[in-house]
């Protein structure tokens, strides 16, 4: 009797298992990159093994005078745009630092080391009760100090069990890299863009330093038995920073369009009312996910969503932040003509906007490097 052939999905599952159980998990410390405010940092990545993610550690020495206030999004909003570009030139992740941090906090079920920003503002560095003071810190008083924070840029969905989206980097040609856009200043009225309030005089001493650590698995062999080809041919990442400014007015609904041809694992939307964010979400009356303009499949109030968020991460997210998870049953936007989030606005100051991020998976369509 002829032996039954394995399906591509079975081959992928076998190769994934082989890679996870026999491959060597490795971390490469990369050369630190230093840049100035208003510039774009470029971090070249190495070509080695199957890459699962990159940790970015930020260090920013500052001197503060006339301390005013801290944005609740600080210090993560200093990374105004974080982009991973693969060998085919595809931006697998392109989003802002705060939304990247927030979505992964929800995914992990933990606020990833967050301690309430501004806890000691005016009298000590914030956050307080932070024993390792060079992991997450932002000065909240006049004088010299240093800002520390980290951002993780994922490639694989779960490096310990699900390698969907992992990047095969074992090639002699091509390049892949991460870019980070820095703000022109660390202080300003817009709490989405700037970590410090407009009256704070903050000077960066010597530039912004980013040190990257590249995580990868070294396969036992470069063949189909150890390379899950479906995983490696799928893109996983975060597409964020999408801003909606049109038709935002009090007592009317505004629609945020989802990207097409994606499997949406989570959605994060921020409502910035003018230059700030409203406590308790009292500037919205409802948030609804709908398909084809007439099928409501998720209906929430801000209070309901924020209670769900508290239960997910055992903490409260900054005002104006709304997260909707769908990883158990992803929203497949290719099945619908149109998927939207309807935001029912109660109040809207000038220059209000909605800022959306999507956690996505989709087929790459590009050949694997080195194969």
Polypeptide structure, described:
There is one protein chain. The chain is mostly beta strands. It has 4 helices and 20 strands. The chain has helices spanning 8-22, 97-108, 229-232, 302-313, and strands at residues 24-29, 33-35, 40-44, 50-65, 81-85, 91-95, 143-154, 167-168, 177-181, 201-204, 208-218, 234-244, 252-257, 263-272, 284-291, 295-300, 321-325, 331-332, 339-345, 353-363. Strands 1, 2, 4, 7, 8, 10 and 11 form a 7-stranded antiparallel β-sheet that branches. Strands 12, 14, 17, 18 and 20 form a 5-stranded antiparallel β-sheet that branches. A 4-stranded antiparallel β-sheet has the order 3-9-5-6. A hairpin with a 5-residue loop joins strand 5 and strand 6. It is globular. The two termini are 33 Å apart. 39% of the residues are buried.
Q: What's this model, at a glance?
A:
This protein is mainly beta.
Q: What is the alpha-carbon Rg in Å?
A: 22 Å
Elements, N to C (H/E): HEEEEEEHEEEEEHEEEEEHEEEE
> How would you sum up the major sheet?
7 strands, antiparallel
> Count of DSSP helices?
4
Structural class, judged by helices and strands? mainly beta
Percent of residues in helical segments?
Answer: 10-25%
Shape: globular
How much of the polypeptide forms β-strand, as a percent range?
A: 35-45%
Name the features.
4 helices; mainly beta; 371 residues; seven-stranded antiparallel sheet; globular
Helices, strands, pairings?
Layout: H1 8-22, E1 24-29, E2 33-35, E3 40-44, E4 50-65, E5 81-85, E6 91-95, H2 97-108, E7 143-154, E8 167-168, E9 177-181, E10 201-204, E11 208-218, H3 229-232, E12 234-244, E13 252-257, E14 263-272, E15 284-291, E16 295-300, H4 302-313, E17 321-325, E18 331-332, E19 339-345, E20 353-363
Antiparallel strand pairs: 1-11, 2-11, 3-9, 4-7, 4-8, 4-10, 4-11, 5-6, 5-9, 12-20, 13-19, 14-17, 14-18, 14-20, 15-16, 15-19
């Amino acid at each position: 009797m002829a032996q039954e052939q394995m399906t591509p999905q079975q081959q992928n599952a076998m190769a994934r298992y082989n890679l996870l159980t026999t491959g060597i998990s490795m971390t490469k410390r990369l050369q630190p990159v230093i840049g100035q405010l208003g510039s774009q940092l470029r971090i070249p990545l190495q070509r080695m093994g199957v890459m699962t993610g990159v940790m970015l550690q930020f260090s920013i020495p500052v001197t503060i005078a006339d301390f005013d206030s801290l944005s609740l999004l600080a210090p993560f909003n200093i990374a105004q745009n974080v982009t991973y570009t693969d060998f085919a030139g595809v931006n697998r992740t392109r989003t802002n630092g705060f939304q990247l941090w927030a979505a992964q906090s929800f995914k992990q079920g933990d606020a990833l080391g967050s301690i309430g920003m501004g806890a000691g503002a005016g009298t000590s560095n914030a956050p307080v009760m932070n024993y390792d003071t060079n992991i997450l810190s932002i000065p909240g008083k006049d004088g010299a100090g240093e800002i520390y924070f980290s951002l993780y840029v994922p490639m694989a969905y779960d490096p310990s069990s699900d390698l969907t989206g992992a990047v095969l980097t074992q090639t002699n040609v091509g390049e892949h890299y991460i870019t980070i856009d820095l703000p022109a200043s660390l202080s300003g009225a817009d709490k989405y863009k700037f970590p410090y309030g407009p009256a704070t005089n903050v000077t960066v001493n010597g530039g912004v330093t980013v040190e990257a650590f590249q995580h990868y698995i070294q396969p036992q062999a470069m063949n189909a038995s150890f390379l899950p080809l479906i995983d490696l041919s799928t893109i996983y990442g975060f597409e964020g920073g999408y801003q909606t400014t049109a038709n935002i007015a009090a007592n009317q609904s505004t629609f945020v369009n989802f990207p097409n041809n994606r499997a949406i694992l989570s959605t994060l939307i921020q409502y910035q009312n003018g230059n700030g964010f409203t406590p308790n979400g009292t500037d919205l009356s409802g948030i609804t996910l709908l398909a084809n303009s007439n099928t409501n499949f998720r209906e929430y109030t801000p209070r309901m969503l924020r209670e769900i968020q508290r239960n997910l991460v055992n903490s409260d997210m900054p005002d104006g932040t709304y997260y909707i998870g769908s990883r158990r049953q992803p929203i497949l936007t290719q099945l619908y003509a149109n998927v939207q989030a309807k935001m029912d606005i109660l109040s809207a100051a000038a220059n209000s906007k909605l800022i959306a991020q999507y956690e996505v998976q989709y087929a790459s369509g590009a050949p694997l490097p080195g194969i």
